[in-house]
Design a protein that fits this description.
Elements (H helix, E strand, L loop, with lengths): L3 E6 L3 H12 L1 H8 L3 E7 L16 E2 L3 H4 L6 E4 L5 H12 L3 E4 L2 H18 L3 E2 L10 H8 L5 E7 L2 H13 L3 H10 L8 H4 L2 H15 L8 E3 L7 H9 L2 E12 L2 E12 L11 E8 L3 E8 L3 H21 L14 E2 L6 E11 L4 H11 L4 E8 L5 E8 L2 E2 H12 L4 E11 L1
Parallel strand pairs: 1-2, 1-4, 2-3, 4-5, 5-6, 8-10, 10-13, 10-18
Antiparallel strand pairs: 7-9, 7-11, 9-10, 11-12, 14-16, 14-17, 14-18, 15-16
The chain binds NADP nicotinamide-adenine-dinucleotide phosphate (NAP) and L-homoserine.
Amino acid sequence: MKPVKVGLLGMGTVGTGVIRIVEGYQEDLQKQVGSPIQIEKVLVQDRSKARRYSIDPNKLTENAWDIIDSPDIDVVVEVMGGIETTKQYILAALERGKHIVTANKDLMALHGTEILAKANEKGCDVFYEASVAGGIPIIRTLIEGFSSDRITKIMGIVNGTTNYILTKMSQEGASYGDVLKEAQQLGYAESDPTSDVEGLDAARKMAILSTLGFHANVELSDVGVKGISQVSKEDIVYGQRLGYEIKLLGIAERQDDLIAVSVQPTMVKKSHPLASVNGVFNAVYVHGEAVGETMFYGPGAGEMPTATSVVADLVAVVKNLKLGVNGQRVFVPYKEKKLKTDDQIASKYYLLLHVADKAGVLAKITQVFAEHEVSLESVVQQPNSNTVNAEIIIITHDASKASMNQVLKHFESLDVIHEIKSVYRVEG
Ligand code: NAP
Ligand code: HSE
């Protein structure tokens, strides 16, 4: 049986896992696809670097064109990360008729349309299951499993690093900086972890998921983004007291043809299934008009979970090769994108205010909410160790984002409010 030959771009966390699975599960893979899968060449930056998994040194190259130009290689698996150089390599590989498997959400969120168009032109497969939620097969689920339904909402914990950090802060009182270092050592974080903690990584994943779920071309610039770097231990403790867990949540919603997509730290009611997704685990909640509520759960990052998704894509490419049907499953959005305005985005909000500890303050604050037509679900006041401040925690009813912005602007000119400590969306 002629082997299917694979060129691997990258042998870091994910690439090492891919080699382990392809070599370790070779017999099972062969039985499923009908021919051996062989890692032919592996691109790295530095061939002399010590590797965690031993590989024939002749397979390592520092020249990407050894893979892209090789007539022997059928499939290019891209797990090196990066955007511009990587895009150039992938487009060149497609031009030469090679199929692509990638774990690169940065690339797919920014240049997915161009890459998929080139794949379409060349009759090639481009699969990117590992780009969102590591080991959870959510992309295939949205494209195939939900093809019969109309999705109205996708909510996801789609970044393992930040969920790991928030969980450790919440359960162990650990410090933000220490846990981030741990997540980096465990191979969860991006090479620049700012994209994890500032929500960009999750935003890229939500752009991919909402494009697939709503059949409209949602771009990164359409996603409102706020990360977790400002989340304090105080927020976590107060949230828990009121029955909430703070999660970095990607939220994509559709009403009629209007959509809104965001990533932000969110107070999630403890009874909601997303509230108990902890550590590096991810979960994606999908609501469909016909099916109702569903949820998909699994490890969101790390060597072996991510590699399972990459190799599953590789298996799909090889099966297509056997059937001669490559390039026939390229996803093309068919709906016009219409984004909600701030007037049309509604949710409940949690606010923590530091205010003057004197009579009449509460009345002034509730008056501002009333002026902007935001009604309140609960208001809790407690003294602070700092004698000039009292703390007020407010949960609103559903309010438009525009109204909440007006309330916050109004608060800035209210002398009894010393500080707006936190404002979070509330879900569940
Ligand atoms: P990583 O550990 O940093 O590994 C990157 C690999 O690519 C290394 O082997 C590196 O070579 C090689 N490389 C990087 N730039 C290169 C260049 N310009 N030329 C040649 N080789 C280059 O990264 P990773 O964590 O495996 O992530 C890889 C991709 O998967 C990224 O797109 C990431 O977003 C995505 N992803 C990661 C995870 C995860 O849990 N880590 C999960 C899902 C998706 P050297 O070894 O010589 O340095
Ligand atoms: N840095 C990413 C995360 C890797 O923490 O989720 C998986 O995409």
